[in-house]
Amino acid sequence: MARRHLAIFLKGAAEKVLSGEKKVEIRLSQNRTLPYLEVSKDDEILLKTSGERVIGRALVENVLFYDNLTPKMVRALQDVHFEDTAMEDSFWQKKLDSHFATVIFLKNPQKFISPINFRKKDRRGWVVIDQN
Known about the structure:
This protein has a 6-stranded mixed sheet with strand order 2-5-4-3-1-6. The protein is globular, with a radius of gyration of 14 Å. The protein has 3 helices and 6 strands. 21% of the residues lie in helices and 42% in strands. It has one domain (3-111): Archaeosine Trna-guanine Transglycosylase, Chain: A, domain 4 (Roll).
């Protein structure tokens, strides 16, 4: 059953999803944090820049999960997904010590005509909103 998620992006990244420049969202972490093992094919992801409103959405075409990552494995993920993630080298450098990865292949990005408010008062970068 498809779920709806809210993904918080750094400035400019959500816009790259909507323009089609960013086709893959990758979340790397040292711990098992969302969206690890909680996002699936055909789920809907609402796109929100930190501190701003929700500006659009995209659907999940496919998703891959990795655990027990090493710096060498993170570099391999970078080699494979560098262009489609549209992330700079500095992002990958900061994430070399990650142990978990969620690689989300995005499809059908849609920009909302009018951004919508979503009240969130914590620092989570990903929220599972509901099941459709």
